[in-house]
């Protein structure tokens, strides 16, 4: 068997197109431009790349993008003051504080100071609780992107066995909640899970969010299963030339693709969907803030 490749890049482009259409309607019919504010504290190079990319894509779909770049030694009081200002700014519908924060800042305190209605990352404790109890919430972008791809590929996920490897607050746990919401039978595996290969072999859907390069081999995969690889790991690639690197996921793509029914590649799978879902969440937040109907297909 050779797996169908789930093309996250093409899917993300379709999501961005939908977002752009809705932004156009909001402007034309209501005179509203959705606005996304991104706050970056410090100089982390990977975070800088993400923030640039988010800003560029926000503008490309017609939304207002505001970036706040703060010094590494910004105090908690100053950061909370900025978030308060953004919470009260009617032109800002989504606020994202880029993680990780410098160590002197309390990440939970900062995230929970964002207005839940503007928490487009879906990390505020209120949104976590709403998702966990099956209520309307802001859904974390990466798991939302994974779910959109799974829904498109399968239609109904009801009754399927799903194994999520990883229990982080930003990927593993919300992913499991979303799959439960789709009536999957969900197992969350982690570093203490016994007999992980056997657990994974039971799954119709495997979501790997571990952060260990190519950890899941093909012989852990049930024939025909769908494999969603969230991992982004940068490895040295001397075969491509001196100093070159490459991105790999948490699953061993070549061996898994021989057994799986469908699989997301790295790069070009889950990664592009994350920013597309951030834009989708911003439009959703803007519609909710203005009491307008939410765009179909951009949230769960
Ligand atoms: P975390 O480090 O927060 O969590 C990793 C999880 O994997 C933990 O729950 C850990 O278990 C589990 N784990 C670690 N080792 C093993 C093992 N040997 N067997 C089973 N489980 C294990 O990572 P994140 O959730 O933040 O990210 C996971 C991956 O996804 C990373 O590669 C990250 O770069 C990528 N990512 C990609 C995004 C995208 O846009 N595509 C967005 C966010 C993340 P325990 O809890 O027991 O320690």
Describe the structure.
The protein has 300 residues and is α/β, with parallel strands linked by helices. The protein has two domains: 30-117, Leucine Dehydrogenase, chain A, domain 1 (Rossmann fold, 3-Layer(aba) Sandwich); 141-271, Rossmann fold, CATH 3.40.50. It is 40% helix and 16% strand. It contains ten helices and eleven strands. It has helices at residues 8-30, 45-60, 76-87, 107-111, 125-132, 141-154, 172-181, 196-201, 253-259, 270-289; strands at 4-5, 35-41, 64-70, 94-97, 161-165, 185-189, 205-208, 226-229, 233-236, 245-248, 262-263. The strands form three sheets. It has a six-stranded parallel β-sheet with strand order 1-11-8-7-5-6, sandwiched between helices. Helix 6 runs parallel beside helix 7. The longest helix is centred in the first third of the chain and has 23 residues, at 8-30. It is globular. NADPH dihydro-nicotinamide-adenine-dinucleotide phosphate binds next to helix 10.
Name its key features:
Rossmann fold, binds NADPH dihydro-nicotinamide-adenine-dinucleotide phosphate, three-stranded parallel sheet, alpha/beta
Write the layout of secondary structure elements.
Layout (H helix, E strand, L loop, with lengths): L3 E2 L2 H23 L4 E7 L3 H16 L3 E7 L5 H12 L6 E4 L9 H5 L13 H8 L8 H14 L6 E5 L6 H10 L3 E5 L6 H6 L3 E4 L17 E4 L3 E4 L8 E4 L4 H7 L2 E2 L6 H20 L11
Parallel strand pairs: 1-11, 2-3, 2-4, 5-6, 5-7, 7-8, 8-11
Antiparallel strand pairs: 9-10
Helix pairs in contact: 1-10, 2-10, 6-7, 6-10
The site of NADPH dihydro-nicotinamide-adenine-dinucleotide phosphate has 26 residues, from helix 10.
């Amino acid at each position: 068997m050779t797996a169908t490749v789930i093309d996250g890049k093409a899917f993300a482009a379709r999501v961005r197109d939908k977002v752009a259409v809705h932004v156009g309607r909001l402007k034309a019919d209501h005179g509203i431009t959705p606005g996304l504010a991104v706050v970056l504290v410090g100089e982390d190079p990977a975070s800088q790349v993400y923030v640039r990319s988010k800003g560029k894509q926000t503008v490309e779909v017609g939304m207002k993008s505001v970036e706040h770049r703060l010094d590494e030694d910004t105090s908690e009081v100053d950061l909370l003051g900025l978030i308060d200002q953004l919470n009260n700014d009617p032109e800002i519908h989504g606020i994202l504080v880029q993680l990780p924060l410098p160590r002197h800042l309390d990440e939970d305190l900062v995230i929970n100071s964002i207005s839940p209605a503007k928490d487009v990352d879906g990390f505020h404790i209120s949104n976590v609780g709403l998702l966990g109890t099956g209520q309307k919430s802001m859904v974390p972008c990466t798991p939302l992107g994974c779910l959109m791809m799974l829904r498109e590929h399968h239609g109904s996920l009801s009754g399927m066995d799903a194994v999520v490897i990883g229990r982080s607050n930003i990927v593993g746990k919300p992913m499991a909640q979303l799959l439960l919401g789709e009536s999957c039978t969900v197992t969350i595996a982690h570093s203490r899970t016994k007999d992980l290969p056997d657990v994974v072999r039971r799954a119709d859907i495997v979501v790997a969010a571990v952060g260990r390069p190519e950890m899941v081999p093909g012989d852990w995969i049930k024939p025909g299963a769908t494999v969603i690889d969230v991992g982004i790991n940068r490895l040295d690639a001397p075969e491509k030339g001196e100093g070159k690197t490459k991105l790999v996921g948490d699953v061993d793509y070549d061996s898994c693709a021989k057994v799986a029914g469908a699989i997301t590649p790295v790069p070009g799978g889950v990664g592009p969907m994350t920013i597309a879902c951030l834009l989708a969440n911003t439009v959703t937040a803007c519609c909710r803030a203005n009491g307008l109907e939410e765009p179909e297909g951009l949230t769960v």
